[in-house]
Structure formats: structure tokens, C-alpha cells
Amino acid sequence: MSNISHIRLTSAEIAIMWSQYQSDSLAKCVLKYFLAKVEDEEIRPLLDFALSLSQNHVAWIRSTYQNEEFASPVGFTNEDVNTNAEKLFDDIFTLHYLNNMSRVGLAAYGLALSTASRQDIREFYIQTLHESIELNERVVKLMLEKGIYARSPYIPANKHVEFAKQQAFLGNVFKESRPLTAVEIMHVFMNIQTNIMGKAMITGFWQTASSPDIRSHFLRGKEIAQKHIEIFTKRLEADDLTGGSSMEPLITTVSQSPFSEKLMLFHISALIQMGIGNYGVAISTSQCYDLAIDYTRLMAEIALYAEDGANLMIKYGWLEEPPQAVDRQMLVENQNMEIFS
Hints:
DUF3231 family protein, Ferritin-like, DUF3231
């Protein structure tokens, strides 16, 4: 990669690397545990590949931060995972997890590339994008071979182009909605899938967490995810389309947690952030008024749930603050205190 370290990092570049350090250091812990427990020899190479990517990303970001004399984030370490714990997730779940991980990477690295300007940072995110494409391609191929890939619903091919003739096309909160468009189906289906994935993961965390308040938080998240799944599934079923099946059968019955509660809380918070982003994109592409209202109120619900999770992390001293702008008012106040002390 190009050596142009004399050019300062922008706030955007600092932000995307800090966020990636958090997510990749978490992924290292999760993938190490999955690798220690996997029995399916077709899935093992994919876990190996994904782990190597996360390890390389963390090392590169740490080195870049050090070169810029920035404090390296704490993120997550070997203290946050117990690879000797019993198997909590079935191998098929780990494949679904990798699929979700690769899709998140494609979106995150695309955004990172579009906001970065320094050449070495851009080259890094071009590389990570290619890596995520390769991971996604390998994972989807294996899922298709195993018959477990959830395809978006099929709809008949259009024979004619139609133009909206009435405002009713945009929907009405008080009347029965028109059939969903293909774009709306895509987003509703995707949001069902991400909630199914999140509900399964939070179920595993709920049954293994030891702190009563954290366990209660996970239970509430599980119930919220189920509610969202039911609302979105109802929208598809109204048009004789299907949504997807539960992943809870892929969670074992063990009660010993392989992960720290810090990691589990952060992981659920990260899934919520992704969900809020997905809902926001769905709102922007929906031409159905009542569907947009559903997304808006559900997004507000999970935002409040995310705040409660953040408060728990603050309570236990686990919420790592990202780099921030300078509070110059505070600098002045501190200087005045020194003068008059």
C-alpha cells in the first residue's frame, strides 16, 4: 500500500477504522470459538478464511493508529471468549452468521471507501471489499449446495409496463394497502431474515448470561425481534408470499457462556445499529405510506432498546468512547480553574 503517512487522517477515516477495529476484534473472538467447535469440514475453511481477514484488519488498523500516534482502541481480546466452553451454536448457524457478516462487510467497506481520501486508506478498503466479496461468494455457494440459503420470494414476470393512475398507489394508513412492489418485498424479506438471525443469537446470549439485568435485557430484545418478524411476515403473507423459518433450533441447550457479557451486549448493539440502517434504507425506497409508518415506529422501538443496552454498558464500565472533536469550552474552563487555583 502507498506510504503517504504525512497526510493527516480525516475524521471520517478515523471513524471508519475505529468502528472496524471494534467489529473485527469482536469477530476474532466469535470466529475463534466457532472454529474450536465446528465439526463440518466444509464450513471449517470458511471460518479459517474469515478469521484470517479479521486478524489482518485488526493488525493493520492498530499499526496505522500507532503510526499516527493515536491511541489504539481496546475492542475485544482473548479475555472475552472461552473456546473451551461447550458448543452453543450448531454448525449451520455459523454458516448463516458468516453470510450475515460478509453482507455487513460489503455495506460497511463500500461506505468506508466512499468517505476515505488518503490513498493508503482507500487501498485498504478496496482490498477489504474484494475480501468480503470472496467470503460472501464462498459462503453463499456452500449454503446453496446445502439447501439452506433463504431466497427472496418469487413474483410473476411483468408482461406490460404500468404507470400509477391514482394516489392510492402510495398507500393509505386507514385502508387496505396495494400489493408490495419488488423493491418493498426485497427489503421486507431482508429485514425478516436479519431479525430471525438476531433473535437466534440473542436467544443463545439470553440462556447463557449470568447477570439478571443483562439476561432481562436480552429477553426483551428476543421479544422485540419476534414482534418485528411477525409484522413483516404478515405483510408478505397478505400477498401470498413467505418470509422465512426460525433459527432457534440451531441453538443448543448449554448454559455456560463462551463470551463475556461485554461482548454479548456490544454484539447485540451492533446488530441493532445494522437493523436501524436497514429500516432507514427501506423507508427511503418504499412508496407505500403505511409500510413506511411501520418501519418508522419499529425503528424508534429498537432505538430505545439500543439506548437501554448502552446504559447497561455504561453501568458496567464497558462502553468505549470513540474519538471525538475537542471540547474547547471545557479547555477554557479547565484553564480558568488552573489560573485561580
